[in-house]
Amino acid sequence: MPEGGVRTAFRMARAATTALTVTLRNFFRAPVTVHYPRVTRPYPDRFRGVLALTYDPETGEENCIGCRLCEFICPPQVIKVEMLKAEKRNYAKLFTLELYACEFCELCVQVCPTDAIIMLRTFDLATTDRRSLLLDKDRLHALGRQFPPSWATGTGLRAMQAPPARGGAKGEAAKDAAE
């Protein structure tokens, strides 16, 4: 056998031994399987789950004004909104969301001026029929009442991303220099 062949055979045997060692080490370790739905894992703090629509807690009216900003910013174009003009304010006549194609990017939540669309701290909408993941306005409102909201709202996210107020660090440095 040529010299290079022995060296190659030795390297292959060492690689196989290393792989088998890792396999045997994990074979005797306790499993980490979570038996869902009997046992649920805690959600991370910034978990982004299913989308929902909200109501104004003071007036009981829906928050969506049908401005269609969420529809325009949605990358996969899964949101469809039709506006209904009323005397006092506008409403969403039709609001549909194709959840099976949603990317859960949270852009619709960030752009909503009235915090009408939120993300929930759940993902439990498993189904065998894709048509049940085509959510209309009534189903989105029901989900908003059924599950707890996520950590962020549109106004909260916009406040986090806003630049600091003028006179922030520079204003404080000038004030300290004057003293």
- Helix percentage range: 25-40%
- C-alpha termini separation: 86 Å
Quaternary structure: single chain
> What's the alpha carbon Rg, rounded to whole Å?
27 Å
CATH architectural group of the domain at 51-160: 2-Layer Sandwich
Q: What spatial form do the alpha-carbon principal axes imply?
A: elongated
Query: How many strand units?
Result: 5
Largest sheet: 3 strands, antiparallel
Count of helical stretches: 6
Top-tier CATH class of the domain at 51-160: Alpha Beta
Please state roughly what percent of the residues sit in beta strands, choosing from under 5%, 5-15%, 15-25%, 25-35%, 35-45% or over 45%. Answer: 5-15%
The SS-based structural class is alpha+beta
Instruction: Average the pLDDT over all residues and give the rounded result.
Output: 86
The CATH topology of the domain at 51-160 turns out to be Alpha-Beta Plaits
Low-confidence stretches: 173-178
- Give the spatial strand order of the biggest sheet: 2-3-5
SSE order, as H and E? HEHEEHEEHHH
